[in-house]
Amino acid sequence: MTAKSAAAAARATVYGYPRQGQGRELKKAIEGYWKGRVDADALRATATELRRTNWRQLAEAGIHEVPTGDFSYYDHVLDTSVMVGAIPERHRAAVEADALDGYFAMARGTQDAAPLEMTKWFDTNYHYLVPELGPDTVFTADSTQQVAALGQALALGLTARPVLVGPVTYLLLAKPRPGVAADFDPLTLLDRLLPVYAQVLTDLRTAGAEWVQLDEPALVQDRTPAELNAVARAYRDLGGLTDRPKLLVASYFDRLGDALPVLAKAPVEGLALDFTEAAADNLDALAAVGGLPGKRLVAGVVNGRNIWVNDLEKSLATLGTLLGLADRVDVAASCSLLHVPLDATAERDIEPQILRWLAFARQKTAEIVTLAKGLGGGTDTIAAELAANRADLASRAGSALTHDPAVRARTAAVTATDGRRSQPYPERAAAQRAHLRLPLLPTTTIGSFPQTTELRTARADLRAGRIDSAGYEERIRAEIGEVISFQEKTGLDVLVHGEAERNDMVQYFAEQLTGYLATQHGWVQSYGTRYVRPPILAGDISRPEAMTVRWTTYAQSLTAKPVKGMLTGPVTMLAWSFVRDDQPLADTAQQVALALRDEVNDLEAAGTSVIQVDEPALRETLPLRACDHPEYLAWATEAFRLTTAGVRPDTQIHTHMCYAEFGDIVQAIDDLDADVISLEAARSHMQVARELAGHGYPREAGPGVYDIHSPRVPGADEAAALLRRGLEAIPAERLWVNPDCGLKTRAWLETRASLENLVTAARTVRTELSAS
Q: Taking the CB of the first residue and of the last residue of the chain, which one, N or C, has fewer CB atoms within 10 A?
């Protein structure tokens, strides 16, 4: 096919779409099911209608080929585990008794069976359920869900493409199940897994699939020769099947690198590449392998992870370069649109001109369709769209919001000493022990307490004008009083005020900093039914006034025990926002760090002796390629130190991280120079404690003993057992006792019982230590 005919054949497609619905109908239906207010048939009916609505929106917008299989009740990796029969033994009976209840048990756990481990999907804030495998794992095909979704789309008269997690990525994401040796490599199960994928492909072909997409995002990470050989073997076998659909292998989030020539040679009909995160690298690599003659190339030229309008002319130039490199070039977003909100036109509180800078899922869909039209018919066919796009880009570039001279001057004046504590850790630790007088194995929580219905109602009433600020603040004071009273009665050693006034750990601060925009309907799935509204970091950042001092000092006035000041760190403020793309991330991080530094210093001046600056996204934002790690970790750790280094030696700085693979960044955790770090550890069975010990981490740490992402209440004996395991790696004088994460999403009943058990466990182990 010539470049001209390839352009004429260009089609628009996407890999996935937001699942929740305009009003988060899926979240409400699932949580209603968990509480017994919605039955299984009603939940399935809601899901069916949401899929239908999504596909119709895509088709009406001009998308030629809609995805199926991207919809999920909880997580698409968990769906893959169901598809291949990788059900943990502890959940097998529940799944066999009721597939839906068993599915949710794997995700959330039960009182008798722990859930699957949860961690971040590559460098995003989406959490997936980690497959548990062992050398005796037996895979069995169950394509029921995938076939049903395809059938529903085809019945609507749509051209549909099932999207599955690819077999190599699935195994690379998996971990040895509990009780299996830690050095077991799930990839050794590939030959056992491939026949199951072959069966699923056959089932989909029988159900009417012309194409099936196999997502292999793990291939944009550094891969060993053995892993690349596994890729070649997997797609040789799947491509060699006689009764199968055409195969489109997709990668995203970074450059494909050494895996590109492997896939280019594989007997598959198409590749999908990301041309936003690593456009030049993927272009050069594609040219180096001689292109994809006879194959389909799906070009991800619209950023599927951020919310800024596309530069249409730049994308068209990229697409034009690609025309000579493949038999057919189609246009798509760089990845699933799961990672962005649904529709920017729903936002009523953002200035109309600024709103034109933004593109959520529906707007990105329109951009994809426009680019496909321009690629196929020439720029004259989209002249009006190009002119409007140029005006929107110019408006943003010239806005006063994006350039504040005072902020620029302050960042230019930063020196290396601004990011260094005045004394080394051993001297600080001695000063903090003398000042705080905490017991061995001090107990604390991560920060937030349950956000009750009454709190959410009060916040909604304030926004709607049904109560005034005085009435709202009275409710917040009462909630803080209850939280402090509970913690004192329970026996916790370092308290928190509970964050009753906060809607979200990033949004709360974003709404008080210049340069940020807040949305009303910009919901994005974080995990399961947990949706967040990432703020939009649009311009230069500064702090007009104190953000947390008032409520922290009020809480401290209610108790003689230390109350932690709670802040979100600069890297997490970037990672959990839609961050500006018009300057280096390091520059933006420095601006945020200086604003937070002012808050840390004001908290200390107001009498706060313990200040926690959370950085759960430090590992999440780690680049996917090792060669890019040093530059990122240098500015990320420097931003944290810039935030925290201005305090006295006897002020104790904490940080917190959760749900990530911490072993990759232990040196960076050390480089933060925080006095205490708390980390998720319950689901991963204290793995992080062993990683810290292996590194020789010299400061205090609190590996979590209570998994807050499950409704189950861990017993005191269970928490004590985890604590003893932590003591095998971390000396008692440096070990803290705490939950994995904040308690915002938990109910008060389970929170009370779990924290009481946590304190009991700490006291039990203290007694054991004193007797030994």
A: C
